[in-house]
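=== Discrete structure encoding ===
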Amino acid sequence: MKNNNYLFTSESVSEGHPDKVCDRISDMVVDAYLKKDPVSRVACETLTTTNKVVLAGETRGPKIDKEEIVSKVRDCIKDIGYDQEGFSWKNANIETFLHEQSADIAMGVDSKGNKDEGAGDQGIMFGYACNETEELMPAPIHYSHKILRLMAEDRKKGTLKGIEPDSKSQVTMLYENEKPIKVTSVVISTQHSKNLNQKQVRETIIPYIKKSIPENFLTDLKSKEIYINPTGQFIIGGPDGDTGLTGRKIIVDTYGGAAPHGGGAFSGKDPTKVDRSAAYASRYLAKNVVAAGVSEKCLIQLAYAIGVSKPLSIFIKLANGDEAKVGKVKKLIEENFNLSPRGIREMLKLNNPIYEITSAYGHFGRKPTNKGEFTWEKTDKTELFKL
């Protein structure tokens, strides 16, 4: 018998987390190439440690001087807020080892003659949506992101003093009959200056919990269930405290563990890589299905083979009781959406330099902008899916 009552937890990390610093830099490289040539190919990995940044990967497109890339890396670090003894935008040692894309990969991906452009790799990608929040995201990951995003906004404005860039959050919620009922615990660990003691850190951070989570979810939350810097102190942080790598926060980037993940990271990859573009497309489809009222939940899996344009399979799972609708939804997708890499890019306008902003606080549940960012969050296909 299925247990419909349970606790579920999701975590988020801030833009100053070492791994997120790397995601930001890698996505900056993608944008830098796409801005100069929208058909550029990029696969960039970044490593950070104490006052050190290393970039490596493959590109195909315009020539960008190393000095320009290094300058843009410094801009990223400065915007995040790092000017510390152990990691500073001013004097961090930055090395770049980007080189030309493999000819074998290019041959499989490029269109030629009667062959359409193929997927940049094999793999499976998942998209998910549910009606737990207005953004059609699972509640625990949505509120985990929001706490850190509001903290970062105030820190950069100068109204949140003594708090440094590296932070993590975690929200646990009680579900009854598969619906979020209340928050049972919150964990926030945040880097802070030497001038703040732990009592001051706690008093500074707790208001952000109340700003981020609806009051009806917090009525039973006790003070002892709010954990702020449970280790006791968090002064050394960021890349000085822990090494960072691109692509190590894939659950944070997606649905907080509430849905499966295909395993491929997003950051540092141009949209010919289906790890990224097909994950965006499957979220777009799932979100429109839920927004149309077809089901309270929708999970979509797409599978690809390198060099092959069309997905090998489309799997759809709806909420319990809506299984009979799966066939109709699948038929609508197959008949109305071109899910080849080229088709996805054209549908969601992914060849634009829109990726640096995605590197922190989730790739999903964000608002589309007039700059063309987060097009996969639009709900402009709801009429199509109304059954």
The mean pLDDT is 94. DSSP finds eleven helices and 13 strands in the chain. The radius of gyration is 21 Å. The longest helix spans residues 18-36.
